[in-house]
Amino acid sequence: MRFSSAAALLAAAASLHGVNAATADDWKSRNIYQLLTDRFAPPSDTAPARTNPVPETCDPVAQTWCGGTWLSIIDKLDYLQGMGVDAIWISPVHQNIDVHTPYNYAYHGYWVNDVTKLNPRFGSEQDLQTLISELHKRDMYIMVDIAINSIPTLNQNDALSSESLAADNSMWTDPAYFHKQCWIDYSNQTSCEICWFGDANLPLMDVNTEHPYVISTLNTWIKDFVTKYNIDGLRLDAGKHIPPEFWSGFTQSAGVFTIGEVYDGSWNFTASYQNGGHMDSVLGFPMNGAISKAFSIKPKNSNMTDLGVAVGQQLSSYNNPRVIGNFLENHDMTRFRNVTADPILAYNAMVAQFLFEGIPVTYYGQEQDLANGHDDPYNRAALWPTNYENGTTYQRIARLNLIRKQLITTGLQFNGKSYMDDNSTAIGVTPTDIAFRKGPIVYTLNNRGSPSETEAFGILATGWPSQTALVDLLSCHQFITGSGGSLSISYAQDGYGGLPYIFATASDAKTLGICGKPTPVGVLAPNSTSAADISSPMSVGLMGAAALLTASLF
Ligand SMILES: *[C@@H]1O[C@H](CO)[C@@H](O)[C@H](O)[C@H]1NC(C)=O
Ligand SMILES: *[C@@H]1O[C@H](CO)[C@@H](O)[C@H](O)[C@H]1NC(C)=O
Ligand SMILES: *[C@@H]1O[C@H](CO)[C@@H](O)[C@H](O)[C@H]1NC(C)=O
Ligand SMILES: *[C@@H]1O[C@H](CO)[C@@H](O)[C@H](O)[C@H]1NC(C)=O
Ligand SMILES: *[C@@H]1O[C@H](CO)[C@@H](O)[C@H](O)[C@H]1NC(C)=O
Ligand SMILES: *[C@@H]1O[C@H](CO)[C@@H](O)[C@H](O)[C@H]1NC(C)=O
Ligand SMILES: *[C@@H]1O[C@H](CO)[C@@H](O)[C@H](O)[C@H]1NC(C)=O
Predict the structure, then answer these.
(1) Quick check: is 433 catalytic?
(2) How many CA atoms lie within 13 Å of 456's alpha carbon, on the beta-carbon side?
(3) What are the chain's domains?
């Protein structure tokens, strides 16, 4: 008896101190859906808008609130789970300046002026708690965007005077809690850390995160916030604009998985935040650049070798590549589909997003092919005009999530290596095609796009013996390896052009529960919603000319 009550007490104490909090290891098998609370789901009877009036149509250019709330997110959780989403990252939840500015209104939630209060535009404490408990009931994680780097002010000319600071309704009332004014020089990291975002119209005063009072206040606050709301993870806004040393203490106090926005194209620079122990992970901006380059039409300036090099960089730069956020677009960037209109190229990019080492991060609207040009505010349209359709891209994401999840949960191995533990290794590359082995799968990507081509892509050695029956987990088409385990992929099928493929042995496909009999739901023909025919082998891999493989294996 004494033992069990001591254990119960320990367990209670442990949960109070966040020991059950989700770690990087808990997150690595998840996928994340990034949403802006104001734009993801419309007000409803059970989730009334907090803003009156709500515009009849949500024009992103107007930069005002369109009515989404924490409660309205709940209305669309079935939609997210239908796509296999098991974690959401929501835009900042804390109090913003709530006045008209030269850049209109803080509908996005990033103009936080006091993290100790919630943003009443999105709901109450109870509402946020209701959302989070609803997520947890569904075994979904919640990640909250944390914006602590700067405080907006409308008092351009004497921003740091005591009077201005009092008027800003900010939690920081002493000028010593801010760095002195200078505008950021992005080529200078010190300047990135201490100078100010914004401009003379709307300066964002840079919080002095070296000040002991600021440090202790924020560390205490984040610990309490995470515990109070049962938060599973934090996305750290403006990661590279706060000294890494600050993040070390802050993320330790938070005690949950953290992923930072280190908006930078350098592998080793972004990696230094993870490798230095300052945060668990970063969003993979270098990989985002490599994928965009590989699959964009204009300019089609890449060959697949570069993409293979990028995969190697991801593996060698980061101490823990398996938790790097892999994304195609976000709230600051032009929509991927504006750059890559061809649905087949986008499909290939999505396979990279979901299968490369890392955590796939889908920005709301990607699944509905939102393609608004330019960045902020065009990339922040309301989702509801899409009617949350179960369209081709939505189903492709569902399929990719299913494949990835099944590979992880079954732990299937090839040569002793599972999908999660193995590294994507290029086993064939040409200027337009690349094939990777990763545990029990071989997957191929190409930048041929639509429509069909008569050329084929040959892989000399997949690692499987000759005459092995394979299934493409995307289309459920069957293949058979040729001599030496070779494979030849034709891009002449059905008028679809350069489709990606994810091969597993027919017996592994059965274990995965994908493409077995009976035909599972959600099996997609390349660009339609009808079930694919799996009865006839599509291609028998007889490696004809070695010339098909124009670049050497690496
Ligand atoms: C970088 O920025 C800091 C802060 O503004 C400044 O003090 C320093 O001189 C700059 N360094 C260079 C090389 O420009
Ligand atoms: C990253 O690599 C470049 C070139 O190799 C080097 O100049 C730079 O100092 C490195 N940065 C970090 C943060 O290690
Ligand atoms: C492809 O890119 C690699 C690496 O940048 C380069 O060495 C190679 O010459 C390129 N090949 C072709 C055919 O463009
Ligand atoms: C990209 O955005 C621009 C500007 O809004 C628009 O004119 C163009 O049609 C868009 N392209 C695609 C492919 O949607
Ligand atoms: C994957 O790559 C990393 C970094 O190069 C290496 O440390 C690790 O051992 C590799 N894992 C496997 C299973 O090959
Ligand atoms: C979407 O449509 C596909 C094909 O009809 C179906 O299998 C799948 O269950 C649908 N998904 C949802 C969430 O309704
Ligand atoms: C698939 O897409 C291609 C190119 O967009 C089109 O020509 C073809 O008709 C589509 N096939 C089906 C079955 O929708």
Answers:
(1) no
(2) 19
(3) 5-149+209-411 (3.20.20.80), 448-553 (2.60.40)
